[in-house]
Amino acid sequence: MAEHLDEIRVDGDDLNDVLLEIERSFGVSLPHDLMHVHTAGDLFAEIRKVRAPDGLGDRCDTAMAFFLLRRMLVRFELQASATPRTPLAGRGLPSPRRLARLIRNEMGLAAPGLVVSRTGGIGALAIFVAGIGFALLTWSPQWLAMWLLILPLLVLDPGGWNGDWKTLGTLARSVAARNVAYFADKGARNREADWWRSFSHLMAGIVVPVSGDVEIEPSRIRPETRFRFH
């Protein structure tokens, strides 16, 4: 079992993004002054002050999201027998970008953020390196304009089948975490432990452990895990 994290590094801008995600997911409005928040548990306590879990409901929110997503994806030839471990890549599905729109517009749910596809990542890196190369060989501010091509490349990128988009199960878990209040109203369990699981999933997407790991498992974030802002 992975050890718990004592500290996690948090960028101020990323924290603002996840606070918006938390407010949308839990259906709360957090106070603007959070100077007293030093740990993950402190931030979770702010959610419970506004909307405490009532312990009602008897359904798993991830399972509910899974069946909703599978029903939608069957329209695009995903097998009706698909399981949470079914990978989404190579199934002939629309791109993650289009699926995100369908999740938002047809299902009325918040969708996870997109991961840049391998092609998009390579293209952006190639443009960046070429811009530096041309600027060094024959300096001209015009070469720097090449970097502006990266923006439309990333905006139009279809998204990659990684992270939350890797399997039907990871997508369902992420959708459930971003729509806690919605699924609670539909009969999902909303005990404190269930809410913490969704909360830690959202936090894990924007924090970096002090050890320098690229990503972390939500289960490693504990109430006593301290924030280190940078």
In a few lines, what is going on in this structure?
The protein has 230 residues and is mostly helical. It has 10 helices and 3 strands; from the N terminus they run βααααααααααββ. It has a 3-stranded mixed sheet with strand order 2-1-3.
Notes on the structure:
It is a single chain. The chain is built from 10 helices and 3 strands; from the N terminus they run βααααααααααββ. With 230 residues, it is mainly α. The protein folds into 3 domains: 1-53 and 191-230, no CATH class; 60-114 and 166-186, Orthogonal Bundle (Non-ribosomal Peptide Synthetase Peptidyl Carrier Protein, Chain A), CATH 1.10.1200; 118-155. It has a 3-stranded mixed β-sheet. The longest helix has 20 residues, at 118-137. The radius of gyration is 20 Å and the shape is globular. The two termini are 29 Å apart.
Distance between the termini: 29 Å
Structural class: mainly alpha
Considering DSSP H and I runs of 4 or more, what fraction of the residues is helical?
Answer: 40-55%
Poorly predicted runs: 209-213
Walk me through the topology.
Layout: E1 7-10, H1 12-26, H2 40-50, H3 61-73, H4 96-105, H5 118-137, H6 141-144, H7 150-155, H8 168-177, H9 180-185, H10 192-204, E2 207-209, E3 226-229
Helix pairs in contact: 3-8, 8-10
For this entry, give a set of tags.
230 residues, mainly alpha, Non-ribosomal Peptide Synthetase Peptidyl Carrier Protein, Chain A, 3 domains, 3-stranded mixed beta sheet, 10 helices
